[in-house]
Amino acid sequence: MEKKPFVPGPRRPNNGNNAPARRGDRNASKDLYAINERIRAREVRLVGDNVEQGIYPIQRALAIAEEQGLDLIEISPNAAPPVCKILDYQKFLYQQKKHLKEQKAKSVKVVVKEIRFGPQTDDHDYNFKLKHAIGFLQDGAKVKAYVFFKGRSILFKEQGEVLLLRFANDLEDYGKVEQMPVLEGKRMIIMLSPKKK
Predict the structure, then answer these.
(1) Strands 142-148 and 112-117
(2) In the β-sheet with 83-87, what is the strand arrangement from edge to edge?
(3) What is the DSSP-derived secondary structure letter of residue 50?
(4) I need a surface site. Which of 10, 51, 74, 79 has the fewest CB within 10 A?
(5) Is the pTM of this model over 0.85?
């Protein structure tokens, strides 16, 4: 039996009303803020630079927004009465996104890098670890340096403290001491945070 070639049927004209939703548009209908006729309150408190602040009936507030060719945006729906601003909605959303981005950038996670020493670390090993610590501090990470005492080496705790203080002193151009050397169990720890540029 011979196969017939596939011939597509007639396409329906797409006048825009039945356009398929793009991915990510599902939430587009669920606006973050009620605007214009979607505001359900009878009266609202208008705030902002371009209006006389006060409480207005919703119809009057909508009229003021329309006169300015802008949108009435409900920014605080739980207040009594709800607080609204008169702004360009797209511009307002853009500003909100920008503000959120800035907040995220400010709340950067603090990275803590650990550097371990023995109580009798030689100069070559010390300098190698110092170089790493400088790199970590320059990258904005905190440095937690510690001397680990095994068995009877706890007898050298003064030596460990001297080593950590020397380490902090060598890093003073890159970081500041957040916590002086303290003995926690078998470890003596010092914390350094990067200097702000």
Answers:
(1) parallel
(2) 54-57, 43-47, 83-87, 71-76
(3) S
(4) 10
(5) no
Series of mean pLDDT values for 10-residue runs along the chain (197 residues): 54 42 40 84 88 90 91 89 91 89 76 84 88 89 87 73 89 86 85 82
Alpha-carbon distances of 26 from 5, 22, 137, rounded to whole Å:
37, 8, 44
Distance (Å) of CA 154 to CA 150, 158, 160, 183, 187: 7, 9, 9, 10, 9
The half-sphere exposure of 157 on its side-chain side, counting CA atoms within 13 A, is: 13
From the list 128, 135, 139, 141, the residue with the least C-alpha distance to 192 is: 141
- Give dist(CA 46, CA 43) in Å, integer: 10
CA distance linking residue 165 with residue 190, whole number of Å: 8
52 Cβ contact partners less than 8 Å away, ≥ 6 residues apart: 46
Between CA 47 and CA 44 the distance in angstroms is 10
Q: Tokens 């007898």, residue?
A: 155
Q: How many residues are recorded in the chain?
A: 197
**Residue 115: strand pairing partners:** 145
Cα angle, residue 38 at apex, residues 35 and 42 outer, rounded to 5°: 100
Quote the distance between the C-alpha of residue 44 and its chain's center.
32
List, in order of start, the domains of the chain with CATH numbers. Answer: 36-105 (3.10.20.80), 112-194 (3.30.110.10)
